[in-house]
Amino acid sequence: MSASDGCDDEVWAARGSERASAGAAKADVSGAAGDPDQGSSAESLATGGVTGGRSEDGSCGASDSGLEGSGGRPSREVEQPLESADIPRNPPIAQFPPAGLPPGQTDRWPLQEPPPKRSGGWKRLAALLGVVALLVVAAGVGWFLYDRSQPRPLVRTYVAPQVLGDPIPVGDGPDAVAFTPDGTRAYVTNYEDGTVTVIDVASGQPSGTPIPVGDNPRGGFNGGRPTAVAFTPDGTRAYVTTLDDGITVIDVASGQPDPNPIRRLRYTFGVAFTPDGTRAYVTNNDDNTVAVIDVASGRPDPTRIPVGLAPSGVAFTPDGTRAYVANTDANTVTVIDVASGRPDPTPIPVGIEPRGVAFSPDGTRAYVTNGRDSTLSVIDVASGRPDPTPVPLGPDRARKFPLGVAFSPDGTRAYVANNFANTVTVIDVASGRPDPTPIPVGLAPSEVAFTPDGTRAYVTNSTSDTVTVIDTGLRFVPAER
């Protein structure tokens, strides 16, 4: 081959070797960095080599496959893309940065951690159940602590009733007793000396001097002789009935009697106020009537309500629609319609010599004491009929002679004063049965009354001139959790 037609093989070989070395180094760098395009170009330099031969003008030259403008023509060979298997999707974790990068620079050499292993489903379920258990335990502990930090509600319970201390001394011949609505004081009528004794409930002792009532406060058949006492619902006044001079009105705040009694009434035995406090009913024992007094004016209605023979006790239903009057000599109870002021034409038959009458707090029953036969009549208020079998107050009932009767404020008990037996019988209202063991009190008890809270009962002993205080046994204890 002549010098003009050929090229020096050694020159071409040297140049091809240099380009191959440069292409291989670039391929290493680009392939390790994960750039397929750069890797392909470098690989082309490394593998394409140098094509030798003459140019079109006949000069001796070389063309670099993959390098444009390098002094030779581009190769006519088309580069083929690398197979997908040749480009790894997740490059392997590099243990050291590639050559040529500054120390600490890794942004061009990304490190990838292997994906975390996912635990099994039973582990997630166990963890969930554990969280739920902790929440339940926490809620239980919270409820326990909250419940213990709150005061428990109080419930009623009863223990055996008993007499408290010594009886309270009062006037001569105590008969009736009543508490002020606030429960701070009790008024006791002293039949024989024509006075009213005021008892301070907190100390259990008489307070101040007795209050004279009637025109002749020294008693006897010529004056005085108080028989009953009742307070207006607002507690500002007390009405005291007397056998001879009508009604004495006492101002509770001052303890002074009105100098002008409500007259034109004689032999008044019982008194009661309507629940709204606008009227008072007073039984007139000698003319068999009931007088209606307007409380605001203090004047009796000129028209009296006719009832049975010798009326004594009187009481209103809790709703104030009716009044019951015990007719001692007729052995009946008259029912009065309060709205019209008219008596029911058919009285309710009860026992012999009815004296006291009281309504249960719920207004469903009325108790009437029958003095002569020592029984207690129970009347169903809705039907107006008495129970066919009165409640016996003991086996020797002829010796009881019950007079006063009162319900406890909660309506579960009723106390009956047995005048001849010197006892008080406790009736269980739910069963209608008397306690077989009466409570011993003073001589000749006549009336009984409960404090508004129901924890105490006062009993007047007409022959002992005392008042017995009974602990009713009512207790308020915390409810069980």
Notes on the protein architecture:
This protein is mainly β. The chain has 2 domains: 9-86, no CATH class; 155-478, YVTN repeat-like/Quinoprotein amine dehydrogenase (Methylamine Dehydrogenase, Chain H), CATH 2.130.10.10. The strands form 9 sheets. Strands 4, 5, 35, 36 and 37 form a 5-stranded antiparallel sheet that branches. Strands 6, 7, 8, 9 and 10 form a 5-stranded antiparallel sheet that branches.
Our measurement of the CA-to-CA distance between the termini, rounded to an integer number of angstroms, reads 120 Å
Overall pLDDT: 80
Can you tell me the CATH topology of the largest domain? Methylamine Dehydrogenase, Chain H
Largest sheet: 5 strands, antiparallel
Rg, Å, rounded:
57 Å
Query: How much of the polypeptide forms β-strand, as a percent range?
Result: 35-45%
Count of the domains? 2
Which CATH architecture of the largest domain?
Answer: 7 Propeller
Helix content: 10-25%
Tertiary shape: elongated
CATH class designation of the largest domain = Mainly Beta
Concise summary:
With 481 residues, the chain is mainly beta. Helices cover 14% and strands 36% of the residues.
